[in-house]
Amino acid sequence: MAALRFSCFLATTLLVLLAGPANDPLAAEQDRPNIVWIVVEDMSLPFGCYGEKDIQTPNVDALARDGVLFKRAFVTAPVCSTCRSALVTGMYQTSIGAHHHRSGRGERTISLPDGILPVPRLFQQAGYFTANGSFTGMLDKVAPREAPRKAGKTDYNFQYDKSIYDSHHFSHRQPGQPFFAQYQLRGGKGRNVPTPKPIAAEDVTLPVYYPDNEVIRSDWALYLNSVMNTDLEVGRILTQLEDAGELEKTVVFFLTDHGVSHARGKQFMYEEGMRIPLIVRGPGIKAGKVREDLVLQIDLAATSLALAGIEIPESMQGVDLLDEDYRPRQYVVSARDRCDETVDRMRAVRTENFKYIRNFYPQRPYLQPNAYKDNKPIVRQMRALHAAGALDQNQARIMALVRPREELYDLRSDPNELHNLASARRSRHVLAEHRAMLEKWIVQSGDQGATPESAAMYDSDMKVYLDAMKTRRPERFEEISANVARMKRWASEGK
Asked: Which of 93, 165, 324, 482 could be 86's S-S partner, Cβ–Cβ 3.0 to 4.6 Å?
């Protein structure tokens, strides 16, 4: 179907060129939709359209009513730079060597494989204007070109050419030129942003795997407040597009980069870390549709290209979700590797009813030392409550000093992923099936995480990380240095 769309686009373009004024080279572009990705940081599914009851999110809910809501969307990595590297290429980060968080930034660099181009470049080659902006930068009424601080994140784990983005704002395009634009929202990282009608800590509903504690309640309330602020930002984005006369010409994708940064969320393979919202709204897309099939964030690349009439590269691993010949996946895979200074390797297979997790470092704690995570209020409080013996069995699981090599959860009866069935006799067949799925994926996708990161690459990246901490957050420098030393010691000990 993608090839058919491309052929139809070429035919339409030819007719427009033949019928339009000879002096209007952009006449063929005007019927091509704009593509906008609204990408939110550090947020799971606390939106009304996904069943959230504690807060209201009218703008995101309206976006869902006017478009397609995907109920089972997942990321290929539960951490930002690796996920962003996958999103912008439409490929698994493990296939392109971008699987370690904050990698390739020192003297040792990482390049994309030959023939792999970031999605913005493909849009540029097709005549699109490309923009990548932060929330504040994209909403400027007057958008000067010289505004580097207003550009969106480009912390990919590979070397890239800055010219793939024409600007931080789509208003800089030529009249009538279609645009591909990313709005990057602070999401769960904006917990200190004032909220017009904040939710009180006593009014939140905590997941059962977190203790009912004042500190944790307050942290969760701040998180929900950031969700409401995100909803307001989405409303402002849609209004901006409407005021510019572009909304009805624009396909809007709404998603998060991964789950919330809590103890079991970001960096982990539980639903809180790898399941995300995904909504698509725009011209030609049927409103009010809800889809239950398993999809990945890397599918946005192929879907966006197809909507724009751009041929999807054969190497791209994402698929066009709107293709008439689309065949749902039987399973999706997510991968976690090194995050900042913390060495790890996890893989997860998600099927319709089950979650299978492989821990390649079972001899290490779930919550390995990690300065970024350890400074989260919820993690600090969980550690303190665990030391005091104040956590129940379910809450204390994440504090274990070792992990099982395999985890298996029946999501129908255990949506919170609390009861590991990997050792249960009745689950042997299901376990074997999911184990085989993972092994097949590792081979077929060319999972580069199967080879440990070299000491030289680790040292190269850690030097950049530590040098930055000396200036930005000197209070964390010693902690990170100690964690780096511990990672090296554990490796030498075979742990």
From this structure: 93
